[in-house]
């Protein structure tokens, strides 16, 4: 079964040797050129998509409008994407051992930002890669069961530990 990546994970592409992608730095933040009028009443956040070339030849990368989809909340509703403030990768040659990063600004109702899914489909040297999905959230661990302020990895480890502990306790009763 296909499992999504956690925000911050690297995903390697089998069809493009040495190429890997990461969605990271999912955080609240206002766009640099001001808010879009269509996002009135919504909470802005930013996310970065980094492409790294660990191969032996340079590759032409395209990550533009329509190649990134951001969904929020438990029902997977579409987030408002602020294309005017976002910075894409448009026809950039990524040489071996180099990276290129796109910065996207999106917005949604604050209550829905605890669950954010980002789907990316790159175009590499005029060929499309498979779609990849990353899941994360903003302020996911607020409340009485809060995990330490160590980020998604520690919070996920905490959740797994609690689940396993509950399962062990059920088995001993």
Summarize this structure briefly:
This is DUF4352 domain-containing protein. The chain is built from one helix and 14 strands, in the order E-E-E-E-E-E-E-E-E-E-E-E-E-E-H.
Could you characterize what this model shows?
The strands form three sheets. This protein has a five-stranded mixed sheet with strand order 1-14-11-6-7, with no helix packed on it. Strands 2-3-4-10-8 form a five-stranded antiparallel sheet, with no helix packed on it. Mean pLDDT is 87; it is low at 140-152. The chain has one domain (11-170): Immunoglobulin-like, CATH 2.60.40. Helices cover 12% and strands 41% of the residues. It has one helix at 152-172; strands at 5-6, 10-12, 19-28, 43-53, 59-63, 68-72, 77-78, 80-81, 89-94, 98-108, 116-120, 123-124, 127-128, 132-136. It is mostly beta strands. This is DUF4352 domain-containing protein.
């Amino acid at each position: 079964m296909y499992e999504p990546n956690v925000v911050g994970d690297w995903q390697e592409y089998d069809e493009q040797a040495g190429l890997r992608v990461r969605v990271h730095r999912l955080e609240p933040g206002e766009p640099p050129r001001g808010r879009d009028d269509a996002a009135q009443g919504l909470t802005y956040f930013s996310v970065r998509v980094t492409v790294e070339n660990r191969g032996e030849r340079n590759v032409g990368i395209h990550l533009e409008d329509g190649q990134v989809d951001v969904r929020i909340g438990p029902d997977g509703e579409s987030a408002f994407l602020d294309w005017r403030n976002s910075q894409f990768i448009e026809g950039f040659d990524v040489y071996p051992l180099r990276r290129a990063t796109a910065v996207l600004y999106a917005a949604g109702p604050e209550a829905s930002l605890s669950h954010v899914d980002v789907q990316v489909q790159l175009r590499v040297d005029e060929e499309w890669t498979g779609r990849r999905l990353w899941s994360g959230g903003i302020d996911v661990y607020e409340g009485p069961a809060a995990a330490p302020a160590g980020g998604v990895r520690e919070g996920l480890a905490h959740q797994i530990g609690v689940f396993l502990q509950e399962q062990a306790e059920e088995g001993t009763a």
